[in-house]
Write a structure and sequence with these properties.
TIM Barrel, seven-stranded mixed β-sheet, six-stranded mixed β-sheet, 15 helices, globular
């Protein structure tokens, strides 16, 4: 697998894709593709027998790379090169009834057989009117109207249908010192009691209740991501008036505790690319993160409906250099993002880090 596919994936995520109305209707009919109706799309390139997942925005004809169809083959043209790709087909699983609903109306499956569960849409930062300006968790379309029993039941159904291989769990930050992890533990216990046995990836804020990590690990949480979000302290404070107050050292303390429990190559932090991040700060901070033993999952910041920020991205050459420098330092420190066992990191559709890293 060559690094060129990483650049292609990054270009697609920067520019988005254009799907005309006729093709959009066909995609929804043929694949029951929920994300396409919400302004986002998941698909994958076939490169030397490997599936390269891509999560991208649907843009207008002027800005997005146009998706074409020739017979049953979808393709996209980037820089004069046409690449074939496929959509994930899970229509059969989505049409299985659960209670008075269909499974696909409760939860949709992401790339790489990945089920992303948002078990809680409440967040203390929204309650305190200090929410992250790029976040719209209160408006996330999936699971908003689903009960915990429905989430558990559909997760078990997808497992038994062999439609998923791993799970991620996220939610808003709780008010207690545990940051909501006790509620996560209770939810995972319900999954396990039902018979869901798949590995789980979990995202959460820094917490002093690090003894809970052992309980999570015993319940089958294999992979965790405690998300710094942005490299510079100033940008975190400006875009995250609540979460940005958490000092960098608190992340380090939580990361180190996570590494002790979950092990090498299983502890991550999301880093979002945005134009007004301090470029002189970016790579030094990335190297500090890697020196702790944490893998920074770098991806571009996509605009979200209902969020309060207009996103401008760094120039593409700068982004490519960030990925190349990060990969070089990860390899120097013998860390490998391709070894993640569960969650959005294993999914890989949100970031081209795995493709820049190579096989």
């Amino acid at each position: 697998m060559c690094q060129d596919i990483g650049t292609i994936k990054l270009l697609v995520q920067n520019n988005g894709v254009y799907i005309d109305d006729i093709l959009a209707a066909e995609i929804n009919e043929r694949y029951n593709h929920f994300d396409a109706r919400m302004g986002k799309v998941f698909f994958y390139f076939n490169v030397k027998g490997a599936k390269i997942p891509v999560y991208a925005e649907i843009k207008n004809k002027k800005n997005g790379f146009p998706i074409k169809k020739n017979q049953d083959v979808y393709s996209i043209n980037i820089g004069g090169h046409s690449l074939d790709f496929n959509f994930y087909d899970r229509k059969d699983a989505y049409n299985i009834p659960i209670g008075g609903k269909l499974a696909g109306d409760i939860i949709r499956i992401k790339a790489d057989d990945h089920l992303a569960l948002t078990f809680n849409h409440d967040c203390k930062h929204f309650e305190q009117r200090q929410q992250c300006k790029f976040c719209n968790i209160h408006k996330w379309p999936s699971q908003t109207n689903s009960t915990l029993d429905e989430l558990v039941n559909v997760a078990y159904l997808y497992q038994e249908e062999h439609a998923i291989k791993h799970i991620s769990i996220t939610g808003g930050t709780g008010n207690g010192v545990d940051k909501g992890l006790l509620n996560v533990i209770n939810f995972i216990q319900r999954l396990r009691k039902k018979g869901v046995t798949l590995p789980i990836g979990l995202e959460f804020e820094p917490t002093s209740e690090t003894h809970l990590f052992n309980e999570l690990n015993k319940l089958g949480v294999t992979t965790v991501s405690c998300n710094l979000e942005f490299a510079s302290d100033d940008l975190r404070l400006r875009l995250m008036p609540g979460k940005g107050l958490i000092p960098f050292n608190s992340y380090i303390d939580t990361w180190e505790s996570c590494i002790n429990v979950f092990g090498k190559n299983q502890v991550y932090t999301n880093i979002l690319l945005i134009n007004d991040d301090d470029e002189t700060m970016f790579m030094p901070q990335i190297k500090k993160i890697i020196d702790v033993g944490v893998i920074p999952s770098i991806g571009i910041l996509l605009e979200q409906e209902g969020a309060s920020i207009k996103v401008f991205l760094p120039e593409i050459k700068k982004q490519i250099n960030y990925f190349k420098e990060t990969v070089a330092y990860l390899k120097k420190q013998n860390l490998n993002p391709r070894l993640a066992m569960a969650g959005c990191i294993k999914n890989g559709g949100y970031s081209p880090l795995n493709e820049f890293y190579g096989s």
